[in-house]
Specification:
By secondary structure, this protein is of the alpha/beta class. It is built from 20 helices and 14 strands. Helix 14 runs parallel beside helix 16 and helix 15 crosses helix 17. Pfam families: Complex1_51K, Fer4_15, NADH_4Fe-4S.
Length: 532
């Protein structure tokens, strides 16, 4: 089966919409429609913005769940102590095959995300805003949204805003990977733990959170904490975005108040009445059984009480007709292939764990099961990034959730069911098949000046290679939009001034330039410096 999710699946809502308001009117809210639907956004002091985040118990919606107000204050404190301007980063890198909520927001409500990001930038006195995206559709949408507001990366602007493209990989969406990509490196974890609030983009204190978090902040700033808290539970007010896939009739992104029974959400998506299991939190999450799915509600606290996890909001039920261990093996193989390759637990441990699970399924017996458990224990807590820990959590949850099937495979060599492949995974070669948006520019080299230093190939190896004779070879292709920054740095680093970038004949921008609309004027105040 293995049908990847579309970029923008069906979107539905339970109760009154907040993040998805206006989705019933248009496919994408441009700035004019955004202001009609949501109304103007009043100025907000930094202290008040932090207080709003704390009053609504806003936590990051990318999976880690760190308190946003605490993060905001930490960045402000570091910026004041060091005397440098902080940076605001919207992490729209959604490389997990089971998640589409941020992609939906970036495609359909990009201005709501920018509202929250600009509020935070104003509060912190930031002069730089970066939006990291994964897919062509999200890059096109967010570039158009920035153009609608007259924002760009040109020098001299009060706020410079730019888009950075990251690969569609699990490890590329981690905060440290995004920051490393923005700094010009590969979109991989750096292998060392560093707090972005202290040192992030360009070494500056950096406020980084995912797209839904900034959209939630914008909603709360507009309607106020009291009205925001009227929706959802007292401990976790508001709504959440869920991506429902797996054994469902209609894969969808659903906006739902916290506290709604999970069984209702599954029924709405057309899941089996009694699922064999439900994977909560995505491929770094936990399985729960039918009883847990029936008794739990959509909230971090409720799902954790039955062994589940809200995580990044991915919910994946499977029916009784498929082998759950076979489904887990497909995901395990994908997780092993997503390794950053920078540490033993990731590079060696995850493939070994996937191979161990295959041995168990193929009748390896108790010895194979014990070997798998040993490898999983060895991987946990020793990786250079969060990918080994998340993957180990998935392995351990699989072994504890499907004990009957595990016993059947260990003792009898099979559970008697085929693997139907209901959990979504990318098609083979998906990374190589990704097409980038052409910028209309090409790199040219003046061979009368080139001295073969090779610095250009170090900066943008995607476009420039060094030939056996020591001189560069430039790809005869238009520079993709997401590599424009690297291409410009390569030109600037050439000590012989032999490189230049030129527009191709008849080139058209790949991004629409919509009419600008009037925006509310924000005052620039540091956290704690203005009246609430």
């Amino acid at each position: 089966m293995n049908l990847p999710l579309p970029d923008v699946p069906e979107v539905r809502v339970v109760g009154l919409p907040q993040l998805t308001q206006g989705f019933d009117l248009v496919e994408r809210l441009d700035l004019a429609m955004h202001l009609k639907v949501h109304g103007p956004l009043a100025p907000c002091t930094g202290e008040r913005l932090a207080a709003i985040a704390e009053e609504i118990s806003l936590r990051g919606r990318g999976g880690a769940g760190f308190p946003f107000g605490q993060k905001l204050r930490a960045v402000a404190k570091a910026a004041v102590r060091r005397g440098v301007r902080p940076v605001v980063v919207v992490n729209g890198s959604e490389g997990e095959p089971a998640c589409r909520k941020d992609t939906v927001l970036l495609n359909r409500a990009p201005q709501l995300i920018l509202d929250g990001a600009l509020l935070a930038a104003e509060a912190l006195g930031a002069r730089t805003l970066v939006i990291a995206v994964t897919r062509n559709s999200t890059e096109i949408s967010i570039r158009a949204a920035l153009a609608e507001r007259g924002l760009s990366d040109r020098r001299g602007q009060p706020l410079r805003a730019r888009v950075v493209r990251t690969p569609e990989r699990m490890v590329s969406g981690e905060a440290s990977s995004v920051i490393r990509a923005i700094n010009g490196g590969p979109a991989l974890p750096p292998g060392r733990r560093e707090r972005a609030a202290e040192s992030g983009v360009g070494g500056a204190p950096t406020l980084l959170s995912n797209a839904e978090t900034f959209a939630q902040l914008a909603v709360a700033a507009r309607i106020g904490p009291r009205r925001y808290r009227n929706t959802g539970t007292a401990a976790e007010p508001g709504t959440v975005l869920l991506t429902l896939s797996g054994a469902v009739a209609r894969p969808m992104v659903l906006e739902v108040p916290t506290g709604v029974p999970l069984r209702y959400v599954l029924e709405l998506a057309g899941a089996p009445p009694v699922p064999q299991g439900v994977l909560t939190g995505g491929y770094h999450g936990n399985w729960i059984d039918a009883s847990g799915a029936h008794d739990s509600m959509v909230s971090r606290e409720s799902l954790a009480a039955v062994g589940g996890a809200l995580g990044a909001g991915a919910i994946l039920p499977i029916g009784p007709e498929t082998c759950p261990l076979g489904e887990a093996l497909r995901v395990a193989d994908w997780l092993a292939a997503e390794t950053a390759g920078q540490c033993g637990p990731c590079r060696l441990g995850l493939p070994a764990a996937a191979g161990g699970l295959a041995d168990v399924i193929n009748g390896g017996g108790p010895a194979a099961l014990e070997a798998l458990r040993e490898v999983t224990r060895a991987v946990r807590g020793r990786g250079a990034c969060k990918h080994p820990d998340g993957s180990a959590r998935f392995f351990a949850s699989t072994l504890s959730a499907f004990t009957d099937d595990l016993a059947a495979h260990v003792l009898h060599g099979s559970c008697g069911r085929e693997t139907t492949g209901v959990l979504p995974l990318p098609l083979p070669g998906y990374q190589e098949a990704q097409e980038s948006i052409p910028s209309g520019e090409k790199i040219l080299i003046d061979w009368t000046l080139c001295q073969g230093h090779g610095l250009c190939a170090d900066v943008v190896p995607e476009l420039i290679r060094i030939n056996p004779d020591g001189f560069p070879s430039v790809a005869d292709a238009v520079v993709p939009t997401h590599l424009q920054g690297k291409a410009q740095r390569a030109v600037r680093r050439c000590p012989a001034l032999a490189m230049r970038i030129e527009r191709t004949a008849g080139a058209q921008d790949g991004v629409p330039r919509p009419r600008r609309a009037e925006l509310p004027v924000f005052s620039r105040r540091a956290l704690g410096s203005g009246r609430g």
